[in-house]
C-alpha cells in the first residue's frame, strides 16, 4: 500500500513540474516575441497612422472640421481629408513621443490616468499633462515595415478591439503584446501644409464678397456687451480678428480680439433672425459654434450655433453680401452665399490665406 501511495505521489509531482515547465516556456516565448521589437527613431513630424490589419486610419469621431476634441475615444476609419487624421508625433530625447491630432490641442491619452495599466483601457483625447499615460513609443518589427505602439505607463500596446476589425468606428485600446496584425501600425508621412484652426487669429470673410465680420461701433465701444456683429469692408481693427477657442465636442467659442468677448446669439433665441452679438463668455450653448464644411470644397464653411442648429447668415440674404452694414443673424441652414464663410489667417506663415482642410 505504501509503495502504491509513493508511486502515485511521484507521478503527481512529475505532472506538476511538467505543467510548470510548460507555463514557463510559454512566458519565455512571449518575451522572445517582444525582444524582436526594436525602439525606432521616428522623427518629429506629421503622419497618417494606418492599421495594418484592415487599412483603416486612426481617427477622431466626427467629420472633418466637426471632429470631436477633449474626452472622446479614438477609433479607426476610412481616410478622409480632415485634420483629425493628421497626427503630430513629437519625439523627446528619451525616445518616447506625444501624439496630437492637428485639429485640436488635446493629446493621445490612455483613459484612467497613469494607474490604468489593465488590458482594455481605451485611447482617448485629453488635456496634456505630460504623465506616462500620454507617452508612447514606436517599436519596429523585424518582420515588416510597420510599428507596434507602446504605452509607457503600462508597457502595453495600442490594439484594435477584435470585433471591430474591417469595420469603420472600431475602438482602440491597450493590450498585452500579441504580435497580431491588429497591433501593427503603418506610418505615412504627411508633407503638406498644416492648418490648425485652434491656433492663431482669423478674419471671417463672406466666401463670395470682400466683406468681413465686424463689431458695430468705433473704438472701445466695440467691446460692449450686446454689440451687433455685422459685415463691413476690411480695416485694421481688432474687432475683425477672432480666435477659435475649443469648447466640448466639435464646438468652438469665437473670441473677438478687441477685448475678449465672444460671439453670442442674443437671448439664446432659437428661431430665425436671432441676432449675432458679442458678449462676455458665459459658457452657454448660444455661444458655441461648429464649423461645417461645404461638400466638395476645401475652404468654405457654414458656421452653426449649437443651441439652435441654425447657421450664421447675412440679414437680407444673398443680395446684401456686397454691402457695408448688414447685420448677422441666425437662419435655418440652406448653405446659400449669405451663409458661406472663409476663415482667413490674420497672422503667421499663412497670413492672408484661407484656412483649408488637409488633402491626401
Structure description:
This protein folds into 2 domains: 37-189, Trefoil (Acidic Fibroblast Growth Factor, subunit A) (Trefoil), CATH 2.80.10.50; 202-345, Trefoil (Acidic Fibroblast Growth Factor, subunit A), CATH 2.80.10. It is built from 1 helix and 25 strands. It is 9% helix and 32% strand. It is mainly beta and 360 residues long. It is elongated, with a radius of gyration of 27 Å. The longest helix is centred in the N-terminal third of the chain and has 34 residues, at 2-35. It has one helix at 2-35, and strands spanning 37-39, 45-51, 57-59, 75-77, 87-91, 97-101, 107-110, 123-126, 136-141, 147-151, 157-160, 170-175, 185-189, 202-206, 212-215, 229-232, 242-246, 251-256, 262-265, 276-279, 289-293, 301-305, 311-314, 328-331, 341-345. A hairpin with a 7-residue loop joins strand 21 (289-293) and strand 22 (301-305). It starts with a helix and ends in a 15-residue tail after the last strand. The strands form 9 sheets. The chain has a 4-stranded antiparallel sheet, with no helix packed on it.
CATH architecture level-2 label of the largest domain: Trefoil
Q: Which range best describes the helical content: under 10%, 10-25%, 25-40%, 40-55%, 55-70% or over 70%?
A: under 10%
CATH topology of the largest domain: Trefoil (Acidic Fibroblast Growth Factor, subunit A)
CATH class identity of the largest domain: Mainly Beta
- Quick check: average pLDDT? 88
Strand content: 25-35%
Provide the gyration radius in Å.
Answer: 27 Å
- Report the total helices: 1
Cα(first) to Cα(last) distance is 80 Å
How do the SSEs run, as a string of H and E?
HEEEEEEEEEEEEEEEEEEEEEEEEE
Spans of at least 5 consecutive residues with low confidence: 1-32
Amino acid at each position: 500500500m505504501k509503495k502504491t501511495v509513493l508511486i502515485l505521489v511521484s507521478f503527481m509531482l512529475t505532472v506538476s513540474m511538467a505543467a510548470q515547465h510548460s507555463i514557463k516556456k510559454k512566458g519565455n516565448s512571449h518575451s522572445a516575441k517582444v525582444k524582436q521589437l526594436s525602439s525606432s527613431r521616428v522623427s518629429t513630424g506629421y503622419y497618417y497612422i494606418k492599421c495594418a490589419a484592415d487599412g483603416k486610419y486612426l481617427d477622431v469621431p466626427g467629420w472633418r472640421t466637426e471632429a470631436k476634441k477633449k474626452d472622446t475615444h479614438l477609433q479607426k476609419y476610412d481616410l478622409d481629408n480632415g485634420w483629425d487624421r493628421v497626427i503630430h508625433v513629437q519625439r523627446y530625447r528619451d525616445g518616447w513621443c506625444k501624439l496630437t491630432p492637428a485639429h485640436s490641442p488635446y493629446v493621445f491619452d490612455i483613459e484612467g490616468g497613469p494607474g490604468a495599466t489593465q488590458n482594455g483601457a481605451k485611447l482617448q483625447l485629453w488635456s496634456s499633462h505630460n504623465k506616462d499615460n500620454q507617452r508612447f513609443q514606436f517599436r519596429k518589427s523585424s518582420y515588416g515595415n510597420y510599428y507596434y505602439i507602446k504605452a509607457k505607463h503600462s508597457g502595453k500596446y495600442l490594439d484594435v478591439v477584435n470585433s471591430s476589425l474591417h469595420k469603420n468606428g472600431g475602438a482602440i485600446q491597450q493590450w498585452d503584446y500579441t504580435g497580431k496584425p491588429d497591433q501593427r501600425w503603418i506610418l505615412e508621412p504627411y508633407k503638406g501644409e498644416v492648418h490648425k484652426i485652434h491656433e492663431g487669429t482669423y478674419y471671417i470673410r463672406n466666401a463670395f464678397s470682400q466683406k468681413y465680420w465686424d463689431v458695430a461701433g468705433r473704438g472701445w465701444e466695440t467691446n460692449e456687451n450686446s454689440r451687433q456683429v455685422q459685415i463691413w469692408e476690411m480695416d485694421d481693427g481688432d474687432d475683425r480678428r477672432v480666435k477659435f477657442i475649443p469648447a466640448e465636442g466639435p464646438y468652438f467659442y469665437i473670441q473677438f480680439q478687441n477685448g475678449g468677448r465672444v460671439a453670442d446669439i442674443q437671448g439664446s433665441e432659437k428661431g430665425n433672425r436671432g441676432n449675432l452679438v458679442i458678449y462676455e463668455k458665459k459658457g452657454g450653448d448660444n455661444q458655441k459654434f461648429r464649423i461645417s464644411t461645404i461638400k466638395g470644397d476645401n475652404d468654405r464653411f457654414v458656421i452653426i450655433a449649437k443651441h439652435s442648429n441654425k447657421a450664421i447668415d447675412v440679414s437680407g440674404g444673398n443680395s446684401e453680401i456686397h454691402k457695408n452694414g448688414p447685420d448677422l443673424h441666425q437662419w435655418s441652414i440652406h448653405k446659400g452665399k449669405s451663409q458661406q464663410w472663409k476663415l482667413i489667417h490674420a497672422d503667421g506663415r499663412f497670413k492672408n490665406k484661407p484656412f483649408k482642410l488637409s488633402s491626401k
